[in-house]
Design brief:
The protein is mostly helical. The protein is 74% helix and 0% strand. The protein is built from 20 helices and no strands. It is globular.
Amino acid sequence: MNISNTSFSSQVLRIAIISFAVLYLCNYFMQLPALHYIGSALLLYIISQSIFRLPKVNRRVVSGLFIVGAGLLLWSGAEPLLWIKALMKNANLVTLFICVPMMSMPFFYEDYQSELKVVAQTRMQNLLSFCLLVFVSTHILGVLISVGAAVIIYELMLPNARLYKAEDTFLATLIRSYCSSGFWSPAWASILVVTSQMNIEWLRLIPIGLAGTLLYLTLDMATIAYKIKKEPGRYPRLKAEEGTRVHWKKIYTMLLLAGLLIAMIIIASIVTPWDLMVIIPLVSIIFPILCAVFQKHIPAYKDGMVKYYKQSLFKVQSEVALFTAAGFLGKALELSGVGQMLPSLIPDWLSRYPALLIAVIMSILIIPSLVGVHPVVTGTALVSAIIPASIGLDTMTFALAVITGWLLTILLSPFSATSLITSGLTGKTSWSISLGINGKFGLLCIVIFSLIISFVGPML
């Protein structure tokens, strides 16, 4: 059903989405049952309106999750309060994805992105160094603004990639580098699911995630270096246009903003007892205002909020529906006892081979995604239902297996938002974007990371 995003019902839906997020954040501190019930009613309304606006595949997935979850709750004889509890299971994730688009606004108050293009022309003149710039830039932006980073870097760097005659290589690195932010970015659902449901502090994951990113970067650069060595005459060196220079002030300002944003989240998580999934939405709201005031960009802030209201709130419906449905099913699995059967799907003998077991966990996330099942569904179910010790793993090893498998799922799934958005930008099929250019790399990552996590995980 195609419903205009300017219709009256769409305006009401936007207001309901904003109201839900504000209500959830307020009730985190007030803890009033009445507000909890009002929030559940708002969420139910949002889902009932959003489901008709979803793409066909997502609509089927969301509907299927709710139907299966409802069946399990009926079978287990769950009371009405438990139904509400299941509906609100992922309310924190829903709130986060409603608020997080605001986080990126300060990075558009000035034209920082064009300076990245100039840096490529003047400082990164061969393909390997160019791809390194693409990786680092996309990774940093990916941590801050999620999948929007891939769109920005694609638009900025594509002309340079064409000069190298390396569009496919550029595209592969672009997607890989965005997915690398999944190792530690608090905007990724995998990090939030792991930190909230496994009681692992986000700060503890940062150095581990950065180490994982470095290894992932090394693998990407190694594959590019091999390609260059194989065809040494194919990729020309670039020469900067005469008079072109980098305005480093904008680059430093962008890096400072990124550092301040991450610092705000870290400091708040240290000095307050607040949950990370409350801190991030609050920072997403406050940070753009502070930047607008101190940088004197109030008009740009207003324009950003108009764009957020008109575009972001309309686009976020898919995440709201998907995360709510996944949480509903996850809670239903828990309440019905069916979730406890998931560990039995993993053969006992695998516990004797940790690396193989970790590869199987990653595969449980990846394989269903090839037919459209989002890792939110499988990942939430795994983390909710499996006690790591029951399959012979310690908590951190299991968490790293889920985090790595999740980001590789986004890399390899033709139905992930990353693949679909990139497909729309390039005109290529999502299958060629995902498995086509990243299939071998993904398989290599499964092997390497399974081995390393099996050795390093127990020591962390």
